[in-house]
């Protein structure tokens, strides 16, 4: 049996899987897509390996490269519309709003509930594939161009690059525990080739205060991150917008007309923006309708060390769930509205 046939068989056997892959890769679609290949040499097996090996995936499918969004559109479009809650695959032009008049500032001025605020976007070099089709040499070359662009950042964004290769385990652990750095512990990403050639080509750039950071060759080629203690979403967002605008001038990123910026995981397409707070909500999080409240406001709750981790001491990571079909300003505003409601509920509980 071929690699793809085995993956497909295990997906058929995973009768309890609730993943979007399971839902949308129907037998008819599988038959039509199984022999296709992208311009980068990527296959359907490359896209679905993680979801077939991890039936508890939420999404379960990755794009092996930018061209997968065309070659495997039949299944990816269905997943995209379901995840981002849109009825057609369409995305507006980037729009950050009027940064001098955002209509929000500090979401928790008393500092009682919000521990920290973070907004990130992903970016992909237009001329390279995603992890399943990359070589070690690609990873090294991408790291080089990314770091050159980062090192030209000015003012508050100015910082240093720290490759993972050669970083002491102590430093890595400390940076990860403090929520700045990634590691290779996500089994979903691992099964999707996300850690191939680890740690080659990976690293982190940050400014002196660690309020602007960039992950190089983690899940995406670049993850631009702005974060700080407390709830001042406006400061965090404005810093990120500045970084995006400066990086756009130096590098060409993968984009598609109806999809916005292209990323490895279809859940990140479009704005690619995840705006989050670490927030103490011991009462709200115990309410039977906590999940319903999150769904109503298009929020996603994650644990304290990110996706697929647990909450500690009633602190949750609350962020916007949708990233496509809305502008950057709308995505951050969606998160702001939901977090305001969660704060209201926690205080009145
Ligand atoms: P990503 O946001 O990059 O998709 P994760 O959910 O894995 O991925 O989170 C990455 C890291 O960012 C984790 O260490 C997580 O704890 C940290 N993080 C996320 N949101 C916040 C926040 N508001 N404050 C501090 N750290 C955060
Ligand atoms: C899953 O399907 O659960 C994983 N592949 C993660 C999906 C979303 N992750 C992400 O956006 N980083």
TrEMBL record:
Any one GO CC term of the record: extracellular space
An annotated Gene Ontology molecular function: creatine kinase activity
Species whose genome carries this gene: Acanthosepion pharaonis
SUPFAM superfamilies: Glutamine synthetase/guanido kinase, Guanido kinase N-terminal domain
Protein name: Arginine kinase
ATP-binding keyword on record: yes
Phosphagen kinase C-terminal domain segment(s): 113-349
Binding site for ATP: 116-120, 179, 223, 274-278, 302-307
Gene Ontology biological process: phosphocreatine biosynthetic process
Entry keyword set: ATP-binding, Kinase, Nucleotide-binding, Transferase
The keyword Nucleotide-binding is assigned to this record: yes
Annotated family: Belongs to the ATP:guanido phosphotransferase family.
Phosphagen kinase N-terminal domain mapped to chain residues: 3-85
């Amino acid at each position: 049996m071929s690699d793809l046939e085995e993956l497909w068989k295990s997906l058929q056997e995973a009768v309890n899987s609730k993943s979007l892959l399971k839902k949308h890769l129907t037998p008819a679609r599988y038959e039509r897509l199984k022999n296709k290949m992208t311009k980068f040499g990527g296959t359907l097996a490359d896209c679905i390996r993680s979801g077939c090996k991890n039936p508890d995936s939420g999404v379960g499918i990755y794009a092996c490269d930018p061209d997968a969004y065309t070659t495997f559109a039949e299944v990816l479009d269905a997943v995209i519309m379901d995840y981002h809650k849109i009825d057609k695959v369409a995305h507006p032009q980037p729009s950050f709003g009027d940064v001098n008049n955002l209509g929000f500032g500090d979401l928790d001025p008393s500092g009682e509930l919000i521990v920290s605020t973070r907004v990130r976007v992903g970016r992909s070099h237009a001329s390279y594939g995603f992890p399943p089709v990359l070589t070690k040499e690609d990873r090294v070359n991408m790291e080089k161009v990314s770091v050159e662009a980062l090192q030209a950042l000015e003012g508050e964004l100015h910082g240093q690059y720290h490759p993972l290769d050669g970083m002491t385990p102590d430093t890595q652990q400390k940076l990860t525990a403090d929520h700045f750095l990634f590691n290779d512990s996500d089994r979903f990403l691992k099964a999707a080739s996300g850690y191939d050639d680890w740690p080659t080509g990976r690293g982190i750039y940050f400014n002196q205060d660690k309020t602007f950071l960039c992950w190089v060759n983690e899940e995406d080629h670049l993850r631009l991150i702005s974060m700080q203690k407390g709830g001042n979403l406006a400061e965090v967002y404005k810093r990120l917008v500045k970084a995006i605008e400066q990086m756009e001038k130096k590098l060409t990123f993968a984009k598609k007309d109806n999809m916005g910026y292209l990323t490895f995981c279809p859940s990140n397409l479009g704005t690619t923006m995840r705006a989050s707070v670490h927030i103490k909500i011991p009462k709200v999080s115990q309410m039977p309708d906590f999940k319903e409240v999150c769904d109503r406001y298009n929020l996603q709750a994650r644990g304290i060390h990110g996706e697929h981790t647990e909450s500690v001491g009633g602190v949750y990571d609350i962020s916007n769930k949708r990233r496509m079909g809305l502008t950057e300003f709308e995505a951050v505003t969606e998160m702001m509205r939901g977090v305001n409601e969660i704060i209201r509920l926690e205080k009145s509980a």
